[in-house]
Amino acid sequence: MVMAAMARTRNFYLIPYVAWIILFVAAPIILIAYYSFFDVEGNFTLKNYEKFFTPIYLRMTLYSFWYAFLITAFSLLVAYPTALVLTKMKHKQLWLLLIILPSWINLLLKTYAFIGLFGKHGLVNAVFETIGIGNRQLLFNDFSFVFVSVYIFIPFMILPIYNSLEELNPALIDASRDLGASAWTTFRRVIVPLTLDGVKAGCQAVFIPSLSLFMITRLIAGNRVITLGTAIEQHFLVTQDWGMGSTIAVFLILAMVIIMFATGIGKRGALRG
Q1: Model pLDDT, residue 266
Q2: In this structure, are 29 and 91 located in the same domain?
């Protein structure tokens, strides 16, 4: 009787979670898949999927993956050493909080802040003019887009790596040093392999949303950077071609699912071992 009551209670508490998944995860995906089979006039068609495989959209897909890769790579290059230093600092929780704090600020506000910094009459150009470099066009190019995106996504890369480093058994590092391994060998052969799960989680948290960026792309890069995220925005808000916009979204969702499974294989294998 007690076990049956506990099972009923557990099932009751599952209702909000199931409702959330149905309403805010499953239903939007089903709607996107449904709209992808209709053209602008509301007629059933498969031409949206044929159109996606034309050179224009394939080029957009390539650009999206390329920029997502750059953002993820640079985020990792900055985040891993930062997380490593954080684990060795006093008051590391406070420093971690200061790093994560910008992620609580509205994305639009942060984007406009960078427009003010990198603009023609912004702070960075003012410094350049003071030291004799002169006024530079810092916005509406690849560099500004990648730089701002890396800044925005870095906290999401640092946190899982930091957690993995914190969970690392110090005895393993001490054993490596006792066996005569150098600091670099210990880092390469012990620390990195044991924190790969954190790296994978961070890469997922950065790469997947980077594939579908559109607001940062529009405001920071202008028309210089065209990705699938901006194409979706264009189809939904400008051309009103919801079918084509939904088709691009379907392929983005599939890409995200594949990436999640691909980066999760190692962790599942380790758990089985």
Answers
A1: 45
A2: no
